[in-house]
Specification:
568 residues; mainly beta; Jelly Rolls; Immunoglobulin-like; 4 domains; seven-stranded mixed β-sheet; five-stranded mixed β-sheet; 8 helices
């Protein structure tokens, strides 16, 4: 224990006195004061000009000491609470006993020395209670030993301390502009644009500054260490002092003590550990995001949820010292989603629906009569579409639909059905939907598994082509159309031609070749061929085949481009 006392005394004494003889009368009293006050409870020394991070157990005060060597010295002390409010006070330790100039005189009895220690008192300079980053600043402080005492009554917590005797212009914390607010300049359903004024630190003091934006749904943060504690609760726990082993921040080797002796000498720093049951190290995960953006002062936050309140904080960080200052945060609620218009479906009637790329559409079917079953016929004309059907809020089915599909769900008296359609990522989608409680003849024609049109190259001439396609076992009407196309047939045109819901009514009468009925009870023989005549040599033609259902609804086969021979 004596070794540590002398080490601390050596660290705290003015540099000019370290080479002089020890001790004087003041120094003896000073040493006894350190023995009684600094080591009677948890205490450490604050190095000049360096920010330290530490940890407080709830209801366990902690003391720090800071030495000012000369009178009329500028001094500042900054305390940053991280994840809980702190109570802290700063006091100047004074000695009432007047010491002789040279420390001469006979040694006084031990009882008299102890009595003198009872006359040692501290003058309180500043106190604070809360979770703000607060500081004490003095342009002219007397020399002496300053004591900083901290207490957390709410929970175990992290905090930071910075103390210095350098002029204010040398402070490593970035300076706030005259208007330190964060402004919300633009607000959308999923985006918020923030702007703030630049710090004068970067322009005037030429210090490297980086801005970090923090987004969360709970509250604004007053310090960056509060954010980091929330982001990394496990790491924060690992950096907390281990119960029973709380070391003072001394570099023993720097003061001339052999490194090999440190292991056994550290044992005297241990103190009785608090019961682990008092301290809760588990922290719930929080929805918080930190983004550092360099020296820009405008930033757009994206991928937010509609109609949700968010809190936004901006911190400027001195990248040399890693010390930060907080702007006055802002909060905003994103805009609501535009109300979806619900399309009413009529029993037995086909409804055309257009869905934007990645968009949503809602349809409602409310049968007017009692029913046992409801049948949904859905024709996805282009890409795959996600379909969900709910009855009175209960999910009945969720399917991806490509081409023509039929679904049947169990009915319920006076039930209402909500159909949600979700568009594809590739592009906009078109659908035809029919809902009915009385399915008789199928409104949508059935299709073979293969809807391609086959062209026979050997039967191709300068004025005709021969093609074939598959049918079904049911007798259906098939119509074939042609259209001359050139070599600049674009991808967009090809995509449009893929739309199976575009029927013969969208074609010119001059493009129609013929319509005919056919079917076969044997699916393998349900094939028909057709020779298309009166074509021009060396020309390309787009061919389409439509199959028409009982209700007049038609479905288009896959388009086929053919080319006549140029020389025959």
């Amino acid at each position: 224990m004596e070794l540590l006392h002398w080490c601390l005394l050596w660290f705290l004494l003015p540099l000019t006195s370290r080479t002089q003889k020890l001790p004087t009368r003041d120094e003896e009293l000073f040493q006894m004061q350190i023995q009684d006050k600094a080591f009677s409870q948890d205490s450490s020394v604050i190095p000049d000009g360096a920010e330290i991070s530490s940890y407080l157990f709830r209801d366990t005060p902690r003391r720090y000491f800071f030495m000012v060597e000369e009178d009329n010295t500028p001094m500042s002390v900054t305390v940053t609470p991280c994840d809980a409010p702190l109570e802290w006070k700063l006091s100047l330790q004074e000695l009432r006993e007047e010491a002789s100039a040279d420390g001469s005189g006979d040694p006084e009895p031990l009882d008299q020395q102890r009595q003198q220690m009872t006359d040692v008192q501290g003058t309180e300079l500043f106190s604070y209670k809360g979770n703000d980053v607060e500081y004490f600043l003095s342009s002219s402080s007397p020399s002496g030993l300053y004591q900083l005492e901290l207490l957390s009554t709410e929970k175990d917590t992290h905090f930071k301390i910075y103390a210095t005797t350098t002029p204010e212009s040398d402070q490593p914390y970035p300076d706030l502009p005259y208007d330190p607010r964060v402004d919300v300049t633009s607000l959308g359903r999923t985006t918020v644009t923030l702007a703030w004024k630049l710090s004068p630190t970067a322009s005037l003091l030429k210090q490297p500054i980086e801005y970090c934006v923090v987004i969360n749904k709970e509250h604004n943060f007053k310090s960056l260490c509060a954010v980091e504690t929330k982001l990394s609760p496990d790491d924060a726990f690992m950096t907390a002092p281990k119960p029973g082993l709380d070391f003072n921040p001394f570099d023993f080797a720097h003061f001339g003590f052999p490194a090999e002796n440190l292991g056994k000498d550290r044992s005297f720093l241990a103190k009785p550990s608090p019961k682990l049951g008092r301290h809760n190290y588990w922290r719930p995960k929080v929805d918080i995001q930190k983004i550092c953006i360099g020296n820009k002062n405008i930033f757009t936050v994206s991928d937010l949820k509609p109609d949700t309140q968010y809190y936004f904080d901006v911190f400027m960080v001195n990248t040399n010292s890693n010390m930060s200052t907080a702007y006055v945060g802002a909060f905003a609620r994103t805009k609501k989603e535009a109300k979806q218009k619900t399309v009413e479906l009529k029993d037995g009637r086909i409804t055309d629906v257009f869905v934007k790329r990645k968009g949503r559409k809602f349809l409602r079917f409310a049968p007017v009569s009692s029913h046992q079953k409801v049948t949904f016929f859905i024709h996805s004309c282009l890409d795959t579409v996600q379909v969900q059907v709910r009855r009175d809020g209960k999910l009945l089915l969720s399917q991806s639909v490509e081409g023509i599909r039929q679904f049947q769900v169990r009915g319920k008296p006076k039930a209402k059905y909500l159909i949600r359609l979700k568009g594809n990522k590739k592009g906009a989608s078109m659908l035809k939907i029919l809902a009915t409680t009385r399915p008789s003849k199928q409104a949508f024609p059935s299709l073979p598994k293969d809807t391609r049109i086959k062209a026979f190259d050997k039967l191709r001439t300068c004025s005709s082509v021969t093609v074939a396609w598959l049918g079904t076992q049911e007798r259906r009407k098939f119509c074939i159309y042609r259209k001359e196309v050139d070599g600049n047939y674009s991808e967009e045109q090809k995509r449009r031609e893929r739309n199976q819901c575009l029927g013969p009514d969208t074609r010119e009468k001059s493009e129609k070749i013929l319509c005919k009925y056919f079917h076969s009870q044997n699916p393998k023989k349900a094939v028909t061929t057709e020779t298309i005549k009166d074509l021009q040599p060396g020309k390309s033609y787009l061919l389409d085949v439509y199959v028409v259902g009982h209700g007049g609804h038609s479905v288009k086969y896959q388009s086929k481009v053919v080319k006549t021979r140029k020389i025959c």
